[in-house]
Amino acid sequence: MKNLFVKAMLAAAAVASFSAHAVSVNYTYTNTNVAGGDQSGKTSPFLTAANVATPGSNVFVETFGARNGGGNSQGCGLDTPSNLVSLNGGTYDFRKGTVAGVAAAPAGDSGCYAYGPTANGSLPDVVTVNYSGLLSTLGSNASLNYLGLYYGSIDTYNDLMFYNANGDLITTVTGASLIAQFNGTSGNQSADSSNIYVNLFFSPAEQFTSFAFSTTGRAFEMDNVAVGINVSNNVPEPGSLALLGIGLAGLAAARKRKKA
């Protein structure tokens, strides 16, 4: 019963605005299918159940599964070539599973994920994910208006910071704000309300080219990162998808009775 209550609260979460009103969390989206084989079932609404961008969606995805080779001993690493997406500053790594005092896998995630700092890395840790290389292949005016990520065991000391092409800070989305929005508990490694797929949409005037994950504790964990160009935020909310599923089930039952 408690789990149902938590899910109901997540589905009903209202829009929450952050500094400068540049970005808002529209809702948490939990895919009903298994996402990318990582068993979490949490990915972007713009991706298929296999964590592949829907054709024509203008969305690019990073699952840290080293899809193009070159992974570490666990087969984890960046999917995207470094000339398109680069990670700079701080310390970070990719792994599977939880290691006490180092990193906790996002709830239900048996695949690869990114985290920082590393076991020997210092705090605070700030790592910038820069999409300038990717955007340069799409034209001089290209920028990003959407970020989605599976944010694992969100802590009050975790923050996301967004920058434009000039390196100016657009906005900061704090872990404390997300925890408050979704009625979560800081650092909880299993609850849906603290392990959330967060969708962030930006206005045309405040689109970004890079974002940084910042933490003053251990650790920051994320997976199934999706970025989009001119992506509409008119996507189904979990409640709408559930109603659609009920409707389809009813239609199937009616057809079955008719055949009988």
Automatic annotation (TrEMBL):
Residues 1-22 form the signal peptide. It holds the Pfam family PEP-CTERM. It comes from the Bacteria. Keywords: Signal. Residues 235-257 form the Ice-binding protein C-terminal domain. This is Ice-binding protein C-terminal domain-containing protein. It comes from Rhodoferax koreensis. The lineage of its organism: Bacteria, Pseudomonadati, Pseudomonadota, Betaproteobacteria, Burkholderiales.
